[in-house]
Design goal:
2 domains; five-stranded parallel β-sheet; globular
């Protein structure tokens, strides 16, 4: 954004053409192919695209879900647990695999990655907020790709972000990014649920604060915590 004033900003999708810093969030269902383990070919494809943006001088910060879902597969669990300690254990097991996967694929492009795990406390406490911002900005300046995730191993239900859509928005704000791109297994936001209504209409563009958008957004899937509601928020 730099010195660009609000009145000078290009509206809608055209703004992406001139974006210099972008936050990309990828959800659990995509990363784990709906819970069947980390989808290496898909992850490799997204990494290739991020690397291509890097070559064009565009800074990319990745917000990645998938630790709990990946851990569930490694542990042989078919159903997402409800107990916090079991979720924390699954996140701890899965985060290792997730980090290794990104490190391997970015290394193909001679790009370094950095694991950044955040909790709500990190961004609600002013000193820790500034520390997180400084660390992320330094990594971006060093041409390292930060891979950000919620620190599910230590977080509790009372202090969690709720989902990584919210975390992605906070990171985009933290870094004053030009855009937040949310990748999902749905084509986009529809006026009704396309899984139940074949006549559902895709909403190509909407304005922040439009109450009709919130009314259209549905509930989340089984693996992740976020649905269209959090994406609209």
């Amino acid at each position: 954004m730099g010195e660009q004033g609000v009145s000078e900003r290009v509206p809608g999708r055209d703004a992406l053409r001139g974006a210099r810093r972008v936050v990309v969030k990828i959800g659990s269902a995509l990363l784990t192919n709906d819970g069947r383990g980390l989808d290496e070919p898909a992850i490799g494809g997204w990494v290739d695209q991020i690397a291509a943006l890097h070559k064009r001088g565009i800074e990319v910060v990745l917000v990645s879900s998938g630790a709990v879902a990946a851990g569930m597969v490694r542990l042989g669990w078919q159903v997402r647990p409800s107990a916090v300690h079991e979720l924390q254990a699954a996140a701890a097991v899965g985060q290792n695999g997730l980090t290794q996967c990104y490190e391997h694929h970015f290394a193909r492009h001679d790009l370094l990655t950095a694991q950044v795990l955040l909790t709500h406390d990190d961004l609600s406490n002013r000193k820790r907020y500034l520390n997180a911002r400084s660390a992320l900005r330094t990594l971006v300046d060093l041409r390292v790709v930060p891979v950000v995730n919620e620190n599910d191993t230590v977080v509790t239900d009372e202090i969690r972000f709720g989902d990584n859509d919210t975390l992605g928005a906070l990171v985009a704000n933290l870094l004053e990014a030009d855009a937040l791109v949310i990748l999902t297994d749905q084509e986009g936001l529809f006026d009704t649920d396309p899984r139940h209504n074949p006549d559902a209409r895709l909403i190509h563009e909407g304005r922040a604060g439009d109450p009709s958008l919130a009314a259209m957004a549905g509930s989340g899937g089984a693996l992740g915590r976020g649905g269209m509601t959090t994406k609209v928020q």
